[in-house]
Amino acid sequence: MKRGCTQCGECLRVCPVYAQFKREEYSPKAKRLLLEPLHEDYAAPGVNPSDLDWDHVKELARLCVGCDKCRTACARKLSTADLLADMRHAHPNWTQHFWSLWIKHMGPLWPSLGMMASLVPGWVAPSALKPSLDSAKAMVNEPVKKPWARLFKIPGIQVDSKPVVVFPGCTAKNIRPQWTSKTNNLLGLFGYTVLDTSDFGCCGGTMHSAGLYDTMDSMQQNNVDVWKKLGRPRIAVFCASCHHALSQYGQPLLSEADTVAWRESLTPLSVLLADAQWEITDAKPESYGYHQPCHWGTDHDLPLLESGLSGLRKGEGQCCGMGGITQITNPDLSRQLADSCLAGFPKNTEYILTSCSGCTIQLAAAAPEGTTVYHWLDVVE
Ligand code: SF4
Ligand code: SF4
After folding, report:
1. Among positive and negative, which fits the CA dihedral 133, 326, 166, 198?
2. How far does the centroid of ligand 2 lie from the alpha carbon of residue 263, in Å?
3. In the 8-state DSSP scheme, what is residue 53?
4. Do the beta carbons of residue 211 and residue 86 sit within 8 Å?
5. What are the pLDDT digits (tens) for 39-71?
6. Total Cβ atoms within 10 A of residue 68
7. Closest listed residue to residue 296, CA positions, set 242, 233, 224, 217
8. Ligand 1 in contact with 17 (CB < 6 A)?
9. Cβ of 73 below 6 Å from ligand 2
């Protein structure tokens, strides 16, 4: 039996859902108090003191955005997001399968759905559908016309000779292809040997949140096979959520030695560009901020961006509300968190940069009139 939650309350400091409502029953600590007795890893053998049924569990699962900050804060490294994923796995329902269909098969349709949504005037849609419509509109790709900055390698600095392959993830593959092409160009410009990236698929992170472990396993297997076939190169990642999901791969999918090699190979793109020289163009605006994605852990993007983009300020808000499968299980919560996150920027902020595919789309969907949200790759070349 695994040792579970001590009810120390440290996770309350970091949970965005608790921060939003200030209700202890919404906290990771409360969820674990209720759910651990139902879980085979934590409950004493043969004892089930909880009288929660699946409807109650479902309600608890809707109150988590899968940011995984509770794991980071917890001395025992307990992830309430993982606990809820196990619960969903044990109680599958239609929402998970719709989500799987959306991610696995409908990606190529996302741009057309975005275009169709952008033709619907705001006043036509019932208010209950507005968040979904906004999310669909945010999928429309409108690249910046002129970059704010160009990045160059400082002459004389040598880069690692190990080949690099870029992990694009679903969003870049389907609706923001310029993120992958720019990454390939930048890495080439910096002198890295860049391998073909096209065979990688979804990182599987969102399938884990949905409790669809078989689907997640096959996605992980595909990505590991690609990596091995390419000779175990470095994997450059420009999305915090993909990086977080990829860093969870391990045994039995990978041997012990390959688990170490895989995790060491995962490299945030900004680490590979750390010695960049910046040339700012006249397109750089005056007012802009940065949203720090929950899933980075250590965020290397902010220091890189601060080194070149003067005046960049981190927003004071928390999670954007995109994580897990919250968009489908609890769109109201997802939108409330996005609004709180955006409220953490000074009024009249024209642009918000971030470094996660999910945060980009989520904040773009919820941003007020006059604020545009980009992945930082959108504004550099
Ligand atoms: S994963 Fe995030 S939202 Fe969910 S319980 Fe943990 S801290 Fe709260
Ligand atoms: S930090 Fe960990 S041990 Fe403490 S209350 Fe939260 S989940 Fe439980």
Report:
1. negative
2. 26
3. -
4. yes
5. 888 877 766 656 667 777 778 888 999 999 999
6. 24
7. 242
8. yes
9. yes
